[in-house]
Amino acid sequence: MSFGKVVVLSMLAAFSTTAGVSYLAGDPRDAVSVEVLSPSVQIVSTSARPVSNYKQYTLCSGSVRVHCVVDGDTIWHNGVKIRIADIDTPEVGDPKCASEAALGARATKRLLQLVNAGPYEMQAWEGRDEDKYGRKLRVFVRDGRSLGDILVSEGLARTWTGRRQPWC
Fold first, then answer.
1. What is the mean pLDDT of residues 54-65?
2. Given CB 3.0 to 4.6 Å as the disulfide criterion, which of 5, 37, 54, 99 pairs with 119?
């Protein structure tokens, strides 16, 4: 990597303590990708490849939420609440029946496994940046496949159709 690129990357990293900066060697079109996730999520990329968002997550508990899984379709990433936009999972906070609670717990556990399995990409949801609760809407992708699609294929989620459907 040239000294000039090191200086530019250092300046970008200094821009924010929550910025993720990566240099992609090889093709000059893949020079720099920057992601800033505080106070609002922004995904900025000068390359064709989105930036990975690998962090070690836990289950959310307590009032401080930085990198944790809330339920099967919601996480906190760098202190920003993010809703997986392409799916809907059963509620764990206010389930309507025992089967919804059980399936919601399984979906939550599985999402925790998926986000901790390695790097993935957060892609903007077409048409909307936030839902009505102020959560950022993103699609999580690893190796070209939506993590939401994995949850759907395992029977732990439904594809999002624009409105909630009952689980009981």
1. 89
2. 54
Boundaries of every domain in the chain: 58-159
In DSSP terms, 141 is beta-bridged to 121, 146
Report angle CA 165, 167, 168 to the nearest 5 degrees: 125
- Tokens (6 digits) for 128: 């909307």
Q: What is the 3-state secondary structure (H, E, C) of 125-153?
A: CCCCCECCCCCEEEEEEECCEEHHHHHHH
Instruction: Report in angstroms the alpha-carbon separations of 74 from 27, 68, 116, 148, 163.
Output: 35, 9, 14, 11, 16
Distance set, CA 44 to CA 32, 65, 124, 144 (Å): 10, 24, 11, 19
Residue 52 has pLDDT above 50, yes or no: yes
Closest of 60, 67, 89 to residue 159, by C-alpha: 89
Whole-angstrom distance, CA of residue 29 vs CA of residue 6: 17
- Entry pTM: 0.69
pLDDT of residue 7: 36
Q: Tell me the CA distances in angstroms from 111 to 18, 73, 102, one per residue in order.
A: 23, 8, 14
The three-class DSSP label of residue 45 is strand
Topology, domain 58-159: OB fold (Dihydrolipoamide Acetyltransferase, E2P) (2.40.50)
